[in-house]
Amino acid sequence: MRRKISIVGAGQVGSTAALWIAAKELADVVLIDTVEGVPQGKALDLAQSLPIAKSAVHITGTNDYADTASSDIVILAAGLLRKAGMNRNDLLHANFKILSDVVGKVAVYSPESILIVISTPLNAMVQAAYRLSGFNRERVLGMAGVLDAGRLRSFIAAELDVSVEDVNTFIMGGHGDTMIPLIRYTTVAGIPITELLPQERIDAMVQRVRDSGAEITKHLKTGSTSYAPAAAAVEMAETILKDKKKILPCAAYLQGEYGVHGSCVGVPCKLGAAGLESILEIKLTDKEHAALMKSAAAVKDLCDVIGM
Predict the structure, then answer these.
(1) How many CB atoms lie within 10 A of CB 296?
(2) Per-residue DSSP letters for 9-74?
(3) SS3 for 77?
(4) DSSP element (H, E) containing 192
(5) How far apart are CA 124 and CA 37, in angstroms?
(6) Sign (positive/negative) of CA torsion 271, 272, 276, 277?
(7) Where are the domains of the chain?
(8) Over the stretch 94-137, which tens digit does the pLDDT of each residue have?
(9) Residue 88 above 80 pLDDT?
(10) Does residue 76 register a pLDDT over 80?
């Protein structure tokens, strides 16, 4: 049977994820959106690119969740972006309402699927998807750590004029202000980054990662980040579909790991065919552990607002 990935939300992130999946020939793609014509048009455009790209996947655009039935993976990219005059809670409530509708339908049509959440605010939306779906925690994951690690790797590679393939790093915690970069585990071809760059340059790059969404949005004037979030979600999907057992920084629901109970935060996750196969518990410094608990508390505050 052919593999199938459904992407909820045919905006820039969702359609970019569809393109990545098709280019890698990971699975057939269903692109679904509430707006009539948008997923159909984007799917048709993508389908016409595939003979040129020499990809044999099938792409469907639809407004009907019945077309997503029996998906192996569902990527949740639906939701609003924060607009002028909209505070954090406005965005939280608006996207929770959207997610509630989406997850309910996905659970009916693809009850065995694995969910990868991109919707914002990321950690709270992962926790909401976990609660609303009724799925076990192994099948509900968020992508922010992969995105933030990719951003930091790109900045380090540019700073040192080396290949991004030689740069490895790891980020835990939340997305944005509450992320926790593990600089002591950040290396270039196995060399600790602290031996190659002064601390002030490392700190500046970490801050730029935290501010990347705002920096990109400022340049664009309209719209927001899309390519990197889509690529991050697709890396997770590829790792799962190919049962690669890769260790990726993903948002997962913790049940006592790192002393966190009942909150979705970014941790080292081994991903395979079952989704989350295990969480690696590494020894954190006191400062890192305090930052992780602060991140978990921030997620809890948001989830309390929406009753999740």
Answers:
(1) 23
(2) --SHHHHHHHHHHHHHT-SEEEEE-SSTTHHHHHHHHHHHHHHHHT----EEEES-GGGGTT-SEE
(3) coil
(4) strand 191-192
(5) 30
(6) negative
(7) 4-144, 145-305
(8) 999 999 999 999 999 999 999 999 998 999 999 999 999 999 99
(9) no
(10) yes
Would you name the residues annotated as active-site residues?
Answer: 175
- The Cα–Cα gap between 210 and 165 comes to 22
Residue 138 phi/psi, 5° resolution?
-65, -15
- Please tell me the total number of residues recorded for the chain in this structure: 308
Q: Is 171 left (phi over 0), alpha (psi -120 to 50) or beta?
A: beta
CATH 3.40.50.2020 fits 145-305, yes or no: no
| Global model pTM greater than 0.90 | yes
Quote the CA–CA distance of 193 and 184 in Å, as a whole number.
8
**194 SS3 class:** helix
User: What element of type H or E holds 289?
Assistant: helix 286-305
Round to whole Å and give the CA distance between 68 and 230.
19
The residues pairing with 74 across neighbouring beta strands, listed in sequence order, are 6, 115
Beta bridge partners of 31: 7, 61
DSSP 178: G
Fold for 4-144, please state it.
Rossmann fold (3.40.50)
Contacts of 46 (CB under 8 A, 6+ apart): 15, 18, 19, 22, 29, 31, 59
- 144 band by pLDDT with thresholds 50, 70 and 90: confident
